[in-house]
């Protein structure tokens, strides 16, 4: 067999200078609130509740190479009988970013970082709802890229660079409402 030359820039090559490096340093629950305020009567109700899901993304810069991204998800189930359950989760991730171009920083922090955190946050919410006595709730995936683009379109007239994004009714006003 012929030996293959390793591709330049591979592990240990020392050619990483200037290349973007991204790592997830930690993931954690910052805050979790679970309420089942109508128990035990809620288990007798024969009505299907309406589900409201809100999300928001917060970014905090701790240093040039260290950013915390917090994915906040609020879920409530209500019907004409009352509140079935409420779950509020703030799930954080600590990201190490080195040599990331300035124009790629916001998209990473507001699209890719939340996308990495979301499956873990979804699992925590599913278990929390299950622990209230209801069937587990599996949230649909969130389009973080769409929310980011919507935020950019809403900010163009103001020409501001924000560090928060929200969606799914996350408190943002449509351009016609602003």
Structural commentary:
By secondary structure, the protein is an alpha+beta fold. It has one domain (21-155): SecB-like (Bacterial Protein-export protein SecB, Roll), CATH 3.10.420. It contains two helices and five strands. The protein has helices spanning 102-131, 144-155; strands spanning 21-35, 50-63, 66-79, 82-98, 164-167. It has a five-stranded antiparallel sheet. Strand 2 (50-63) and strand 3 (66-79) form a beta hairpin. Helix 1 packs across helix 2. The longest helix has 30 residues, at 102-131. It is elongated.
Name its key features.
alpha+beta, Bacterial Protein-export protein SecB, 5 strands, 2 helices, elongated
Question: In short, what is this structure?
Answer:
The protein is α+β, with helices and mostly antiparallel strands and 178 residues long.
Order of helices and strands: EEEEHHE
Give the termini distance in whole angstroms.
Answer: 67 Å
The CATH topology turns out to be Bacterial Protein-export protein SecB
Q: What is the mean predicted local confidence, pLDDT?
A: 84
Give the biggest beta sheet.
5 strands, antiparallel
The class by helix and strand makeup works out as alpha+beta
């Amino acid at each position: 067999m012929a030996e293959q030359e390793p591709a330049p820039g591979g592990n240990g090559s020392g050619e990483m200078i200037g290349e973007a490096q991204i790592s997830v340093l930690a993931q954690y629950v910052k805050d979790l609130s679970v309420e089942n305020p109508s128990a035990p009567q809620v288990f007798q109700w024969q009505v299907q509740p309406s589900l409201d899901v809100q999300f928001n993304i917060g970014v905090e810069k701790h240093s040039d190479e260290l950013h915390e991204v917090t994915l906040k998800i609020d879920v409530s189930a209500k019907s004409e009988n009352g509140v079935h359950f409420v779950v509020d989760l703030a799930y954080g991730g600590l990201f190490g970013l080195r040599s990331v171009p300035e124009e790629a920083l916001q998209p990473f922090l507001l699209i890719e970082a939340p996308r990495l955190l979301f499956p873990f946050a979804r699992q925590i919410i599913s278990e929390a709802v299950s622990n209230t006595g209801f069937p587990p709730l599996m949230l649909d995936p969130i389009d973080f890229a769409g929310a980011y683009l919507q935020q950019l379109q809403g900010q163009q007239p103001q020409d501001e660079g924000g560090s928060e994004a929200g969606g799914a009714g996350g408190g943002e006003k449509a351009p016609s409402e602003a």
